[in-house]
Design a protein that fits this description.
The complex is a heterotrimer. Chain A folds into 2 domains: 71 residues, no CATH class; 181 residues, MetI-like (MetI-like fold). By secondary structure, chain A is mainly alpha-helical. Chain A starts with a helix and ends with a helix. The longest helix of chain A is centred in the C-terminal third of the chain and has 39 residues. By secondary structure, chain B is mainly α. By secondary structure, chain C is α/β, with parallel strands linked by helices. Chain C has 11 helices and 13 strands. In chain C, the strands form 2 sheets. Chain C has an 8-stranded mixed β-sheet, with helices on both faces. The longest helix of chain C is centred in the middle third of the chain and has 17 residues. The chains are: A mainly alpha, B mainly alpha, C alpha/beta. Chains A and B meet through helix 1, helix 6, helix 7, helix 11 and helix 12 of A and helix 7, helix 8, helix 12 and helix 14 of B.
C-alpha cells in the first residue's frame, strides 16, 4: 500500500512539475509578455519598464526557477492590474468556487448514482428509459444556455431564485445545477453499466445463495464494487468543474476563481492568468490523487498486494 | 421469412441444417437491418443530415446576408409565433439587435458549428489516435510516457487554457479550431490506448508478427480495422464536445469574433435582451441543442449497432 | 422426523427466447434423503445446473419454474414467498458454485463473507460467528484459519477459495447442500481433494447433497444415487451400483463406454464416443430426445412420449422403449 501511495505521489509530483512548465510558458505564447502586458498604447519606455520590473529580461530558465521557487513558498507574484498580491486575491475568491463546484458535484452524484442503480436493477423499465433520456438530453444541453434558460424561468418569470451576485445559499442553487447537470449523464451511465455487470457476477449469486436480504446484496455486495470506477470519473469531473466554473460564474456573476479568470483574461493580466491556471491544475491533481486513495480503500486488490 | 423448402426437411426443433445456415441473412444485411431499426441512428442521422444540408445551402435558403444586411430600423422584429403586429413575414424568426435576419444568421451559424466541430475533431483525432495506438501497441515505456502526457493534459483546465491562449494570440475561426483541436485529444488517446491494447494481444496480431509484417503494416491492416468502431464513437463525442466548447468560448467573447454568426456568439449578444426578447437566446440555443443531440444519438447508435453485447 | 429432505416432482423450467419457449428442464423428479449424495450427471446444456438453481429459486432473469411438488424439510418452496426463501437459502440449503475464482466478493475479507450468512440467519454474536468460521475453515483443511479471516479473495488460490466456498455453505449447518460442478475449474490434483472433502463433510454433518457433474469418475466415487440427465430429462436413475453395473439407457451405456475403467478397459483400445449433437429444446420435442443419436433407434422412438420404466431392480428406472433385457443384450453386443 505504501508503495502504491508513493508511486502515485511521484506521478502526481511529476505531472505538477510539467503543468508548472506549461503554465509558465503560457505567457510566451504571444511572443513578448512585456508587450502583451503593457497594452497596445504603451510606449517603448513603458514596455522596457515592465520588462525590467517583472524580470522578463532574464533568461527564461532563470525566470522559471524564480517563479517556481516563489510559487512553492506561496508567492504567486503581484497582479499587474489589481496591484495586489495574487495569492491573496486567489485565496479570497477560492471559497466561492469550491462551494459552487462542491454543490455541483454533490447535486450531480445525488441525482445520477441512485438513478443509475435504479436503472440497472430494472433494465428497459420506465425508470431506465427515463434515466437514459435524461442522459441523452443532458449531454446535449450547452451549460451556458441551460443557465440562461433557468435564469429566465426560475429567476425572472417565477422569481423563485435570485439570478446573480447573491452570496446566500439560494444564490448557489441555479449555478450548481447549471454546472453539475453536465456531469450526470456520464456518472449515471457508468453507474448503470457497472451495476449491470456486477449484478450478473458470480459473487452476487453467492450472496443471494446465502439468503442475504436484497438490500444487503444490492448495497453491500453490488454497489461497493460498481462504485469504484465512478469515484475516478467523479474526481475527474470535479476537476473539470473547477475549470468550467468560468462560464457559470461569469453568467451568475459569482465572485469566484472562474469569474476572476474571466476578468483577468479580458484585462490581459498575465501573471494572474498563470497563477489561476496553475492553482486549478494543482487542485485537479490533488483531487485525482485523493480519488485514487479512496479507490485503494474501496478495492482491496489495489490496497493489499 | 419464407423458407418452406428447408422447413420440411429439418425436423422441427432440431439444430439448423447447412441449408438453413446458407439462407441466413448475411452479416451485411443484418447490419443494415440493425442500423435502420435503430431509432437513435435514424433520428440523429436525419437531423444531422438536415443540418448539414442547411449549412451547405445556407446562402440559397434566405434572401439576406448574415452580416451585411443590417438595418437598425428593422431591429428586434419578433418571430412568427409571437403573433405581434410588428411581425414581418420577410423575417420568420425575427431580427436581432442590429436588424439582421435571425433565420439567415441561424442557418449560416450551422456552417461555423459544423466546420469547427469537424475540423477540431479531425485534428484532435489524429493526435489522440496516434498517441493512443502507439501507447497501446508498444506498451512499456511508450505507454508510460503517453499516459503521463494524457494525465498532464487532463489536469489543465480546457476552457481556461483555451481562453488564455486565444486572448494572447488573438481570435479567429482557424485559431479557435487549432486551439480546440490541440486541447481535446485526450479521450481519443484514452479510448484508442485501451482498445489497441485489447486487440494487440489477440492471436491474429501475433500471427502477423510471426509472418514478419512491419509494425506500420500491422497497425494499419490488423489493428486499425478492429478499433475503428470505437474511433467513430469517440469522434462523434468529440465533435459534439468541440462544438459546445466553441459555443462557450464565443459566448464568453473569446471565440469566434463578431459579426460572424456563431450560435454561441448570438446567445452572448442576446444576453442583455433576455428579459424582453428571450427568443433571441432560445432559437440559437435550441439549434445548438438539436445539433449536439443529433451527433450524440448517432454516436450512441453506432456503439449499439457495432457492439450489441455492450448495449446494456 | 422423516429422513426425506428434498422432494421434487415434475420440475419444469421454461425460458422465453426470441424463437419461442425454451424447455431446458422438463418434468424432473427426484428425492434427497438425509446423509445421501445424489449425483446429477449429464453433458453441458442438459439442464442440470438449471435444475439446481430452480431448487434454490435463483434462476436467472426471465426463466420460470413450476413443479407439482417442491418440498424442503416438508415445507413447500413454491408457496414460500421471496422473503421466506431468503430465510431458507444459505440456512437450510446452501449452494457451492462452479467458479471459485469469481464467486467470492473481491471487496470483502473472507471472514466478513463467511460470518455474514450466520449473522443473517442465526441469533449469534460476532465472536461466535468468528469462532464458527475458524472452526469450519479448519474443517475444510485450511491452515492458519484465524489469520485467513482477514485476507481477501484475491490473496487465495483457486483451491483455497473453493474450500472457503464450502465452509461458507456449511456456516448455518444446512440440511441440504447443492454443489454445482464444484471441481471443474480446479487443477486435477486439487479436484480429488475437494471431492473427498465434500464427501467426508457430508457424512460427518449428515446432510443431503446434490452433486452436479459431467464427470462419471466423480460419480463413481461419491454417489449414493445417480440421475443421468439428457436434453432436459432424467433418462436413467437408480443407486450408483445399479446404474454403473446395469446401465439400461443407451445414453448411459454410451457415456460409460466413453470412460476408461482401470482393469477393465484394455490398453490401447479405443474409447467410445456418442455421435451427433444435443437437440434444440425450443418448442415441443416429440418422442425420445436421444433418438437422433441412439444406435438402437426405432420408428416408434420418434413419436409419442417415452416414459420412465422400471429396470431390473427396485428404484432403478430408465426412459426408453426397449425392455431392460433388450438393453442388457445390446450392451453385451457392443462390448463383444
Amino acid at each position: 500500500m505504501l508503495k502504491y501511495i508513493l508511486k502515485r505521489l511521484g506521478v502526481a509530483f511529476m505531472v505538477a512539475l510539467t503543468v508548472s512548465v506549461i503554465t509558465f510558458s503560457l505567457i510566451y505564447v504571444s511572443g513578448d509578455p512585456a508587450v502583451a502586458l503593457a497594452g497596445e498604447a504603451a510606449s517603448n519606455d513603458e514596455i522596457e519598464h515592465i520588462r525590467k520590473s517583472y524580470g522578463y529580461d532574464r533568461p527564461i530558465p532563470v525566470q522559471y526557477m524564480d517563479w517556481l521557487g516563489r510559487a512553492l513558498q506561496g508567492d504567486l507574484g503581484r497582479s499587474h492590474y489589481l496591484k495586489e498580491d495574487i495569492s491573496d486575491v486567489i485565496l479570497t475568491r477560492l471559497p466561492n468556487t469550491l462551494i459552487l463546484a462542491g454543490c455541483a458535484i454533490a447535486f450531480a452524484l445525488i441525482l445520477s448514482i441512485p438513478l443509475g442503480v435504479a436503472a440497472a436493477i430494472r433494465p428497459n423499465s420506465l425508470i431506465d428509459r427515463f434515466a437514459l433520456t435524461l442522459a441523452v438530453v443532458g449531454q446535449a444541453l450547452p451549460s451556458f444556455w441551460f443557465a440562461l434558460i433557468m435564469m429566465f424561468f426560475l429567476g425572472i418569470q417565477l422569481r423563485w431564485l435570485p439570478i446573480s451576485r447573491v452570496e446566500t445559499w439560494q444564490g448557489f442553487i441555479m449555478p450548481s445545477i447549471a454546472l453539475g447537470y453536465y456531469v450526470t449523464p456520464g456518472v449515471m451511465r457508468l453507474t448503470r453499466a457497472g451495476m449491470l455487470e456486477v449484478l450478473q457476477s458470480d459473487y452476487i449469486r453467492t450472496a443471494k445463495a446465502k439468503g442475504l436480504r436484497p438490500m444487503v446484496v444490492l448495497f453491500k455486495h453490488a454497489l461497493r464494487n460498481a462504485i469504484i470506477p465512478v469515484v475516478s470519473l467523479a474526481a475527474v469531473q470535479f476537476g473539470f468543474m473547477l475549470g468550467g466554473s468560468i462560464v457559470i460564474e461569469s453568467i451568475f456573476a459569482i465572485n469566484g476563481l472562474g469569474f476572476l479568470a474571466w476578468e483577468t483574461i479580458q484585462r490581459g493580466d498575465l501573471p494572474m492568468m498563470q497563477a489561476i491556471v496553475l492553482v486549478l491544475s494543482l487542485f485537479y491533481i490533488v483531487i485525482t490523487f485523493l480519488a485514487d486513495m479512496l479507490n485503494a480503500f474501496l478495492d482491496p486488490r489495489i490496497r493489499v498486494t | 421469412m419464407a423458407r418452406p423448402e428447408t422447413q420440411s426437411i429439418t425436423p422441427s426443433g432440431a439444430a439448423p441444417s447447412a441449408a438453413d445456415k446458407i439462407l441466413e441473412p448475411s452479416p451485411g444485411s443484418q447490419m443494415r437491418r440493425r442500423i435502420f431499426g435503430h431509432y437513435g441512428i435514424m433520428i440523429g442521422g436525419t437531423v444531422l443530415a438536415a443540418i448539414f444540408l442547411i449549412a451547405i445551402f445556407a446562402p440559397l435558403l434566405t434572401p439576406f446576408d448574415p452580416i451585411l444586411d443590417q438595418d437598425l430600423a428593422q431591429k428586434l422584429k419578433p418571430p412568427f409565433w409571437h403573433d405581434s403586429p410588428k411581425y414581418d413575414p420577410a423575417h420568420p424568426l425575427g431580427t436581432d439587435l442590429q436588424g439582421r435576419d435571425y433565420l439567415t444568421r441561424l442557418v449560416h451559424g450551422a456552417r461555423i458549428s459544423l466546420l469547427i466541430g469537424f475540423s477540431a475533431m479531425l485534428i484532435s483525432g489524429v493526435i489522440g489516435t496516434a498517441l493512443g495506438v502507439a501507447a497501446g501497441y508498444f506498451g512499456g515505456r511508450v505507454d508510460m510516457v503517453v499516459n503521463f502526457i494524457i494525465t498532464t493534459r487532463l489536469s489543465m483546465p480546457v476552457v481556461l487554457v483555451a481562453l488564455a491562449v486565444v486572448s494572447l494570440i488573438g481570435s479567429s475561426l482557424w485559431i479557435v479550431i487549432w486551439v480546440l483541436g490541440l486541447l481535446i485529444w485526450d479521450r481519443f488517446a484514452v479510448v484508442m490506448r485501451s482498445t489497441t491494447m485489447q486487440v494487440r494481444n489477440l492471436d491474429y496480431v501475433a500471427a502477423a508478427q510471426a509472418c514478419g509484417c512491419s509494425t506500420l503494416r500491422i497497425i494499419m491492416t490488423e489493428i486499425m480495422p478492429n478499433v475503428v468502431n470505437h474511433l467513430i464513437v469517440v469522434a462523434t463525442l468529440e465533435m459534439a464536445h468541440a462544438i459546445l466548447l466553441e459555443a462557450a468560448l464565443s459566448f464568453l467573447g473569446l471565440g469566434v469574433q463578431p459579426p460572424a454568426p456563431s450560435w454561441g456568439l448570438m446567445i452572448s449578444e442576446a444576453k442583455g435582451m433576455m428579459f424582453f426578447d428571450p427568443w433571441l437566446i432560445g432559437v440559437p440555443g435550441a439549434a445548438l441543442f438539436a445539433l449536439i443531440l443529433a451527433i450524440n444519438l448517432l454516436g450512441d447508435g453506432v456503439r449499439d449497432v457495432t457492439a450489441p453485447e455492450n448495449r446494456n | 422426523m422423516s429422513d426425506l429432505i428434498l422432494e421434487v416432482r415434475d420440475l419444469v423450467v421454461d425460458i422465453p427466447v426470441a424463437t419461442g419457449m425454451l424447455h431446458p428442464v422438463q418434468s424432473i423428479s427426484f428425492d434427497v434423503t438425509r446423509g445421501e449424495t445424489l449425483c446429477i450427471v449429464g453433458e453441458s446444456g442438459c439442464g442440470k445446473s438449471l435444475t439446481s438453481l430452480a431448487v434454490m429459486d435463483l434462476l436467472p432473469g426471465t426463466a420460470s419454474r413450476t413443479a407439482s411438488v417442491l418440498k424442503l424439510d416438508d415445507e413447500d418452496l413454491q408457496s414460500a414467498g421471496e422473503r421466506r426463501m431468503t430465510d431458507i437459502r444459505g440456512n437450510k440449503m446452501a449452494m457451492i458454485f462452479q467458479e471459485p475464482m469469481t464467486s467470492l466478493n473481491p471487496a470483502y475479507t473472507i471472514g466478513n463473507q463467511l460470518e455474514e450468512a450466520l449473522l443473517r440467519h442465526k441469533q449469534v454474536s460476532g465472536a461466535e460467528a468468528r469462532e464458527r468460521a475458524i472452526y469450519l475453515l479448519e474443517k475444510v483443511g485450511i491452515t492458519a484459519a484465524a489469520s485467513r479471516l482477514t485476507q481477501y479473495p484475491h490473496q487465495l488460490s483457486g483451491g483455497l477459495r473453493q474450500r472457503v466456498m464450502i465452509a461458507m455453505a456449511l456456516m448455518c449447518g444446512p440440511d441440504l447442500i447443492i454443489a454445482d460442478e464444484p471441481t471443474t475449474a480446479l487443477d486435477v490434483t486439487i479436484q480429488a481433494q475437494i471431492l473427498h472433502l465434500l464427501a467426508d463433510l457430508q457424512k460427518e454433518f449428515n446432510m443431503g447433497m446434490i452433486l452436479i457433474t459431467h464427470d462419471l469418475g466423480v460419480v463413481a466415487r461419491v454417489a449414493d444415487r445417480v440421475a443421468v440427465m439428457y436434453a432436459g430429462q432424467i433418462v436413467e436413475t437408480g443407486t450408483a451400483k445399479q446404474v454403473f453395473e446395469n446401465p439400461t439407457h443407451p445414453y448411459t451405456q454410451g457415456l460409460l463406454e466413453c470412460i476408461p475403467i482401470p482393469g477393465k478397459t484394455e490398453r490401447g483400445a479405443p474409447l467410445g464416443s456418442i455421435p451427433g449433437i444435443v437437440p434444440s429444446l425450443v418448442g415441443d420435442l416429440p418422442g425420445c430426445h436421444f433418438a437422433d443419436r441412439c444406435p438402437h433407434v426405432m420408428d416408434a422412438c420418434r413419436s409419442g412420449q417415452v416414459d420412465l420404466r422400471p429396470s431390473f431392480e427396485d428404484g432403478h428406472v430408465f426412459r426408453c422403449l426397449l425392455t431392460p433385457d433388450q438393453s442388457a443384450a445390446n450392451l453385451k453386443k457392443g462390448a463383444a
